């Protein structure tokens, strides 16, 4: 097997750049972010950061892919014998019922970044890809439940799109209003919907 | 009854300012909007516009209230003998299945404006009020169905919050991705959810 001796090194530099981007985003938000502020959070040679990325938007587009890759990887390891528990687990990770301050901040950041997609084609492609991958993850969990005979034979993609719409809508509500009870109501109603539609 | 002879005149000037704001928003979007561009769309004396509003954000905050007032007034006149048809009517108005270009533009504008609420307290209050009022409208339609014996005795507010989350999530998807089939899937799934949960 051919091994590229630099692959690990390159991979870890990119991960560190993404983690620096995340720290800078948490500190400064989208509007306060600049490539030099990301560089401030980066411990290795700053020139490698400037070498890879021309602008903060370049970095953020890469960051969104990195973040959804991580999310997918973490979800993939969480399969249990109970498809409904798995589904509720994915939902809780995407929209925690009692978010920590950091989770709340990430959600606000995502809502802020997503609004760039109204006018910016690159962000638009990224968020389409993110939604597509989240629907695929949710669909797979639902289809596993159908295969096991635990769930009804529903149109899994349609149910997944419904779940994602509730999650995105409630995430926007949380980030743009103080209607916290609304988020809880939507989550409770979503669970009872899934119970009614899926549980055999 | 005491009548303020200037009330109509004041009311119509304000309506015209709001309509000028709407036209300016459609032409320039949120980021391209300025108070002078709104003034360009205003046919009366520009000084009255500058007299009432200090900044474009002042005007937009007033505009959001104006828009939701209009929406509520139009929904209130649409009560039929069929609560499910009324509910579907409100949903179709908030998230048209086949939007015109203008409806699509309004939705993109709302998503763009709402993102200001992540960091701006005044926009945050406005969007909390808008969501609250939409939930009230939806709740009233559901409660009417319960009173008439057409709907099951559900927690009407909880169902209304679920509906609003789907609508807001799908509206964001439409404005920030090209996943048009996702919006259709969410709408179809929402209708079947309401049928399952509400219809006796």
Automatic annotation (TrEMBL), chains A, B:
SUPFAM superfamilies: Homeodomain-like (SSF46689), Tetracyclin repressor-like, C-terminal domain (SSF48498). The keyword Repressor applies. Keywords: DNA-binding, Repressor, Transcription, Transcription regulation. Residues 11-71 form the HTH tetR-type domain. Residues 34-53 bind DNA. GO terms for molecular function: DNA binding. It comes from the Archaea. This is TetR/AcrR family transcriptional regulator. The lineage of its organism: Archaea, Methanobacteriati, Methanobacteriota, Stenosarchaea group, Halobacteria.
């Amino acid at each position: 097997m051919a091994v590229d001796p630099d692959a690990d090194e390159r991979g870890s530099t990119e991960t560190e750049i993404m983690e620096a981007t995340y720290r800078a985003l948490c500190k400064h938000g989208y509007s306060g972010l600049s490539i030099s502020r990301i560089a401030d959070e980066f411990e290795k040679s700053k020139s490698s950061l400037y070498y890879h990325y021309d602008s903060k938007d370049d970095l953020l587009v890469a960051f969104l892919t990195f973040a959804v890759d991580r999310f997918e990887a973490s979800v993939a390891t969480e399969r249990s014998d109970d498809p409904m528990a798995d589904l509720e687990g994915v939902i809780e990770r995407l929209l925690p019922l009692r978010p920590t301050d950091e989770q709340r901040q990430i959600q606000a950041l995502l809502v802020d970044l997503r609004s760039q997609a109204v006018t910016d084609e690159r962000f638009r492609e990224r968020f389409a890809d993110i939604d597509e991958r989240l629907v695929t993850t949710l669909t797979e969990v639902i289809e596993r439940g159908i295969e096991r005979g635990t769930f009804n034979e529903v149109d899994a993609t349609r149910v997944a799109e419904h779940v994602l719409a509730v999650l995105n809508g409630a995430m926007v509500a949380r980030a743009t209003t103080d209607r916290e009870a609304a988020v809880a109501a939507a989550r409770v109603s979503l669970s009872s919907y899934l119970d009614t539609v899926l549980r055999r």
